[in-house]
Predict the structure.
Amino acid sequence: MKKMLALLLALAMMLALAACNNNTQLSNPSDTGSANSGLDDQEKQGALENTDNIDNTYVRDQMVLAWASATSLTPWGTRNNTPGNYEVYEMLYECDVKGEMYPLLADATYEGSYMPGCDHEDGSGVYTVKIYDYIKDHAGNPVTAEDVAFSFMYQYENESTSGWDDLISVEAPDPTTVVFTFKDDQDDVGQLMNIFARCFIVSKAAFDASPSQFANDMCGTGPYKFTDYVSGSSVTLEKNADYWQTNDDLRRQEQQANVEKIVYQFIDETAQRVIALKTGKVDFAHEMSADGCADFLDGGEYADQYNVYSYQAKFVNYLDPNCSEDSIMNDVNMRLAVFNAIDLDGLVTALGGTSSRLYSYATGYYSDFGWVDWESKDNYNTRTGVDSAAVKGYLDAAGYNGETLILVSTNNGNSGDVAAILAAQLMAQGITVETKVLDNSSANALLAESDGWDLSLGMMAGDQNVTVWAHDFSWGNTADGNHSINFVYDQEWEDLLNLCCTEAGHTPENMEKWWDHAVENAYTMGLFTSNVYEILPEDMTYYVLGDKLMPLTGASTYAAPVKKVPGTRRKDL
């Protein structure tokens, strides 16, 4: 076991040190969140994102998608990822790929005092939403305010929700009016969106008529309707010819139906997805690994049939120090030594080059990323390579005598590999590290105590970068309520965070102040964000990604096949 660990650490060191001599850096993530990893054709990718290429006139016969296996079709839960959910079901409001909320079942023609479709008086916990009076589900049931109230309260009382603690009630005083009552004004960034855009709406009549209560079947109001589910195998949808929203001026691209039939084929392994693509059994592969993309890139054997599309995932992978007095990391010089000993470019290289390094605790997935020029700042999160002399200076200032640092990680995904690579980089600079790779429950239990650990490796997501920060550093996440989960007792930093999370305080200036304070005190370090790879059919002309980066192949657009003129050769066409 010790030999295996030594070999792993040695390999990680070799990769990291090799990266120190490489001047090539990954591009800063764009505001669209697209990855620039070299595993995609930027010209083709740009075309797939260009709204000028939207043309909804051609309807493809079928789209078969390689997708992760699903054991239930339930629409409930704020973290719901049922295959086809965003095509079968709809919400009051939904979010585009950048997290911007728009009305869907909520009546966009009603001006509203707060936003389209919604009235609200500042300082009140009451929000009143108007819905269209002509919504129908796939069974022909009218969908009214009572169905909206039923859906929200059923999900709240029976299923998994997150961030709904302030919700008191949802009521329907008339068929087109829904009244939400909260404990107080929902004025934090993303707070209301996490309610309005995190609950699929169903008619109570369809729910009651379902033998499985939607565990094995689906019935919503979306542009696609459910036709078949084979447990452990596939889900099949077809275009809803009787879709309720017939007003083209109100119908968004996400609501289009440009494919007659969509099949979600459950294929978990990358190798099997590659075979399915090559044999034509599937047309699209979701969340491919980088090593499965080679034959579909330009110059590859199947490049004429597919395109590789990449984008940044929403998760920020980070490293937090234990700032309590029980840890050696309580000393700011020790924290600066650790953070300056980490080579982010080397880390990305060691992970296979399929991630994008971060220049702060922020990622380009979120719309508030471009508000601050994170990369231009001069700190440990923007530095290239490692200055060993600087690291030694910080270690000397901290009085470091070779004490062992405990680096805690979960066993999710590649977290264990990341922990090993970071440990190797720190050890190369004379910092002794022991890694503890644990299951989620064990890791959370250890990190809740102020002793027994020094560094924590994790990943976090939210609705904006500021809400990602709040998930990790808000004092409200701890029982005592007077420090962050990594034991930072800094009222000024907490006040800045709380300000950033309000609608009025969510400004570039306040975000920059919060981050500058963080790096000055070395409270955290952003590491990288993973890249996601999709294999798309060559005839797709515009690719629609929805909320939570959910592929909407039905709403995407396609080129009509070229018809061969009889008696001509292909080169003459």
Notes: The chain has 15 helices and 20 strands. The mean pLDDT is 89. Residues 2-20 form the longest helix (19 residues).
